[in-house]
Amino acid sequence: MRCLPVAFAVAAIPLATAAQEASGLRRVAPPGASSCSGCHASRPAAGLAVPWIAGRPAAEIADLMAAFRAGERSGTVMTRIARGFSPEETRAIAEWLEGQR
Amino acid sequence: MRARLQDVLLPSSDPAMPGHFLPQGEKVARAQASRSPTRRALLGGLTAVSLASILPRPAIAQARPKVVVIGGGFGGATAARELKRAGLDVTLVEANATYVACPFSNEVIAGLRPLEGQFFGYDAIRREGIELVQATATRIDAEARRVTLADGAQLSYDRLVLAPGIELRFDALPGYGEDAAEQMPHAWKAGSQTLLLRRQLEAMEDGGTVVISVPPNPYRCPPGPYERASLIAHFLKTRKPRSKLLVLDAKDTFSKQRLFEQGWKELYSNRLEWVGLAGGGQVTAVEPATRTLVTDFARHGAAVANVIPPQRAGRIAEIAGVADRSGWCPIDPVTFESRLRAGIHVIGDSAIAGGMPKSAFSANAQAKVCAAAVVDLLADKEPATPKLINTCYSLVAPGYGISVAGVYRPRNGLLADVEGAGGTSPLEAPRQTRELEAAYAEAWFRTITADVFG
């Protein structure tokens, strides 16, 4: 029976690895990013008033968010939401969005 | 497919649970134990093959961690899909074959939209490989990590996600109850109640008074009663012009209040009266036979009465032991894991989410954060500190939308508003802004329902 705890230990390492691999199939969403798809469709659809942002260049998204945050660009909810994220957080979200095609 | 060693997990030694997977707590303990250098050294000579060969054959099972999700609404259905896409084995338990969405159901009441527009099925979710079990969960054993269904079947899980929405507290208002709701509909769960209220409004004689009773906080969809009041007022204005609407409220302030009041003054003056708590607005009893609403100060006879009763977390939350004395579920704001039962996560309306309102948007956002945390926890990895967003649109009239938005992060054990962010639509805004927000509301509904069910 001495080897049993060892067997347990070995079995446990791969479990963690398997789940991590599975989650890593898509890049992990940075803080706040997963909420975007509440309004912004992940796939383009006709006649939607809210723009499709998945796959847009990160620099473009980051610039837009900076303009919303500074009040230089008018909007409805985005001016209020952009102020909840630092430039670094915004950049991370923008980079993640670019990869969401 | 042949199970790889990575997919192998030893079953529980508990003879009562043959073949069941180990509860995650034990896996974590073992993963931690495995970090001991002594043990690692001991493993040196063992190859995967030799290790497999020393295990008794029945001990080899699929290692894919199993998550059970209870409740197939905006929160639960989202969580199930996110967990499945992360590679987990997911079972979704939902009692109904079709989901009837609450957002935009106030438009159905006002005759602006068919109820069918609120129906969403589970075909796309099933196609994704999620096991859909149409049943009611009746018991949860948090120790054994096992869910029992109404027919006696059992589902074991490594982690459980509860998204049961709300239960109406029919006992909280003297005179009210499930039978009384046939006379005085709540219409706070969309479906037949929504149509009943609509039929009553259509059938009512012009010149009558419609009364809405609004509960104290917290309840599902904080601005919902006021959007409903707005759209019923719009219905009366266009269809029953001599009728009035009285809103009896158990509180003195409410979501988007100044915006609603501004819109009411502009569109429905002399037609819509709101009475708050201080003015005697709290309904203390109802008399369904005569459609009478009783407050401490007056009795209000109604031609149509919409009674929105106080609420608590969906029933399974109490059964699972994750609801506290408030009737709602305290959670960790990073993982949405219950503060009362390990291994059970609670999202959506049932959860005590601090500053986040009980909305479909919140449930969807929470589901995504919760699912990511569950994946990390199953991998023995610390979940990252999240940020979440909520946006709620309300219609004051067709083509007249207003919104409230917020950004949230964990602080002092709760989800707190990020200061300087969020807030409501501006009070001073051109009509064009209201039109735009009405269009955004419609887009939001199409997008989120496609995200969750499409």
From TrEMBL, chain A:
<dbReference type="InterPro" id="IPR036909">
    <property type="entry name" value="Cyt_c-like_dom_sf"/>
</dbReference>
<feature type="domain" description="Cytochrome c">
    <location>
        <begin position="19"/>
        <end position="101"/>
    </location>
</feature>
<protein>
    <submittedName>
        <fullName>Cytochrome C</fullName>
    </submittedName>
</protein>
<keyword id="KW-0349">Heme</keyword>
<feature type="signal peptide">
    <location>
        <begin position="1"/>
        <end position="18"/>
    </location>
</feature>
<dbReference type="GO" id="GO:0009055">
    <property type="term" value="F:electron transfer activity"/>
</dbReference>
<keyword id="KW-0408">Iron</keyword>
<dbReference type="InterPro" id="IPR009056">
    <property type="entry name" value="Cyt_c-like_dom"/>
</dbReference>
<keyword id="KW-0732">Signal</keyword>
<keyword id="KW-0479">Metal-binding</keyword>
<dbReference type="GO" id="GO:0020037">
    <property type="term" value="F:heme binding"/>
</dbReference>
<dbReference type="GO" id="GO:0046872">
    <property type="term" value="F:metal ion binding"/>
</dbReference>
